[in-house]
Amino acid sequence: MTELDPRLNAAPETIAHIHIMGICGTAMAALAGMLQQSGYTISGSDRQVYPPMSDFLAQLGIPVF
Q: Could you tell me which residues come within 8 angstroms of residue 64 by beta carbon, excluding any fewer than 6 positions away?
């Protein structure tokens, strides 16, 4: 069995901004919050934007388009 190089799973240091599609889903909104806490700038888009996830993202200051 061949082992994978761990560097293949590392995020490039040049990534500063992440845009998440489907951000108003429960899991994606939680992921957005965790990524923001890790220091990334986050934005997102979704076809259906409604509470409570839209309120959660607004409280975090994450723009949703």
A: 23, 24, 43, 44, 45, 46, 49, 54, 57, 58
How confident is the model at residue 59, as a pLDDT? 98
Q: Which residue has the higher pLDDT, 11 or 65?
A: 65
Q: Where are the domains of the chain?
A: 16-60
C-alpha 64/C-alpha 54 separation (Å) is 8
Q: 16-60, what's its fold?
A: Rossmann fold (3.40.50)
Can you give the pTM of this predicted structure?
Answer: 0.80
In whole angstroms, what is the distance from residue 19 CA to residue 16 CA? 10
